[in-house]
């Protein structure tokens, strides 16, 4: 009987140690991402030029849409543009360039349409158990290429585009971690901005 109690405790400690190690491994995998950017050779914005948003970010799956995430993404993107010496405009027609963003998630009803438009495909090499993948895609056009509401601009008119694929962590991280992660992703998206 004396032997049974210590061996049970040792087994429980070993089991607990394995569970903690496994948890760290999942979080480590979940932090990976893949990104890609493409630019037209003639796209060379100059400091002082202005950018306006095409509209709020478009989600491929309306059930995943999140106004707080939209706000954080737009704010981080605006900061990146301002830090590079560009101005932000509320008037699309008056801006030098128009910027648009889409969030493409696994199983979204607009995935094919948005993927075809951005035509840029980052690719995560592996999956983290339990997490879906999502793509943040950004594109820049001129105001003259803005089309009628509900229709996309001509894909050939996109001067610069960038996309990042990552795992959607949802409740696995708190709000501060989410905001920090979004700022980091936007920084990666803008890394190859001319």
Span of the ends, CA to CA: 73 Å
Q: Architecture of the largest domain, according to CATH?
A: 2-Layer Sandwich
**Over all CA atoms, what is the radius of gyration?**
21 Å
| Biggest sheet features | 7 strands, mixed
Q: How many separate structural domains? A: 2
Strand-pairing-aware structural class: alpha/beta
- Please count the beta strands (DSSP E, at least 2 residues each): 7
User: Which spans have pLDDT < 50 for at least 5 consecutive residues?
Assistant: 1-27
The succession of helices and strands, N to C, reads HEEEHEEHEEH
Helix percent reads 25-40%
For this structure, the CATH topology of the largest domain is Double Stranded RNA Binding Domain
CATH class of the largest domain: Alpha Beta
Report the β-strand fraction as a percent range. Answer: 15-25%
Average pLDDT, to the nearest integer? Answer: 80
Protein model, in words:
- With 194 residues, this protein is α/β, with parallel strands linked by helices.
- The protein folds into 2 domains: 1-30; 32-189, Double Stranded RNA Binding Domain, CATH 3.30.160.
- Helix content is 35%, strand content 23%.
- The protein is built from 4 helices and 7 strands; from the N terminus they run αβββαββαββα.
- Strands 1, 2, 3, 4, 5, 6 and 7 form a 7-stranded mixed β-sheet that branches.
- The radius of gyration is 21 Å and the shape is globular.
């Amino acid at each position: 009987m004396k032997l049974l109690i210590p061996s049970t405790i040792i087994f429980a400690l070993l089991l607990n140690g394995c569970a903690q190690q496994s948890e760290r491994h999942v979080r480590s995998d979940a932090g990976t991402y893949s990104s890609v950017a493409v630019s037209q050779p003639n796209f060379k914005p100059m400091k002082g030029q202005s950018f306006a948003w095409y509209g709020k970010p478009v989600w491929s799956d309306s059930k995943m849409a999140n106004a707080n995430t939209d706000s954080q993404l737009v704010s981080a993107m605006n900061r990146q543009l301002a830090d590079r010496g560009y101005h932000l405009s509320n008037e699309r027609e008056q801006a030098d360039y128009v910027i648009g963003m889409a969030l493409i998630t696994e199983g979204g009803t607009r995935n094919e349409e948005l993927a075809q438009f951005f035509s840029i495909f980052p690719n995560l090499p592996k999956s983290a158990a339990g997490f879906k993948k999502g793509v943040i895609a950004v594109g820049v056009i001129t105001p003259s290429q803005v089309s009628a509401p509900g229709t996309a601009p001509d894909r050939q008119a996109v001067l610069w585009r960038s996309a990042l694929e990552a795992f959607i962590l949802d409740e696995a991280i708190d709000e501060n971690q989410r905001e920090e992660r979004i700022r980091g992703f936007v920084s990666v998206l803008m890394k190859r901005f001319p």
